[in-house]
Amino acid sequence: xxxxxxxxxxxxxxxxxxxxxxxxxxxxxxxxxxxxxxxxxxxxxxxxxxxxxxxxxxxxxxxxxxxxxxxxxxxxxxxxxxxxxxxxxxxxxxxxxxxxxxxxxxxxxxxxxxxxxxxxxxxxxxxxxxxxxxxxxxxxxxxxxxxxxxxxxxxxxxxxxxxxxxxxxxxxxxxxxxxxxxxxxxxxxxxxxxxxxxxxxxxxxxxxxxxxxxxxxxxxxxxxxxxxxxxxxxxxxxxxxxxxxxxxxxxxxxxxxxxxxxxxxxxxxxxxxxxxxxxxxxxxxxxxxxxxxxxxxxxxxxxxxxxxxxxxxxxxxxxxxxxxxxxxxxxxxxxxxxxxxxxxxxxxxxxxxxxxxxxxxxxxxxxxxxxxxxx
Length: 375
Hints:
The chain is mainly α.
């Protein structure tokens, strides 16, 4: 029996690696063998992966096989699912890989029974394949069933990081297909488990608080989003200090939420504080990906609502444009959107000489962007 198990564990690993190699242009993959047993296998990723057109990010977690006990770990990472999987097939190949995973799942059911935790783990891996192939409804059913099996069998502790990752991926997928209420229930379960096992103000709870706040914001429940964001901000300030750049993530989200609640004065104060902390941490023209740019963009929206002077707004927009040009390139969509705003305020202030070259540049960018879309 042990030789049969060893064979199918190696088969499962091979299918997993084949699936990853089909899904990504990976530079290398390595297997580590020790003694007579397969001890560890891991995919060796280059620093940057160029992804084929597909709809899911998968991360290989080491698989350990030891005598008399097989531990299957799913290909999961916190928030590892893209939000572009709903209702469509993508270009990822791997039909045969999905069939292989299904065969392995069937075999595990025969060997261990329908309700064994190892079956739940294999089911989770199949759920990732279904998600990557653009079949979210089947992926959701598999995730839900696998979580229930693992929980009922006590195969993995309820507060284990693997279980947490599975719940977060399921919550994300539920939001993608428009089942936000169910997704929030899953995120609330994550938060309750973290608070129960690690304490109510443990830093680990911040991720779940932010995810829940984002979900409530999407459903326009900004009051509940505000409460969650204030809690997460309080925890972060207590954990890392009020001037650490890590506090700016919940702080900026809170500023945006207050903006939606028409509480623009407090929103402006928070956005300015985010700007101050990030300028101190990254510099006035910081990279990467607009650590300042997103704060400035938020500030522009808030100050527009407050009716601030157009010249102040123009200065902010020009700073945003400079950051975006360095980060995204001179012909990026982000640059085009900011140019639209600059042209509007330049025209509003009657600066004709400055308006025409900006408008000409904007027209060229629009034409190029339209051509790219048509291609």
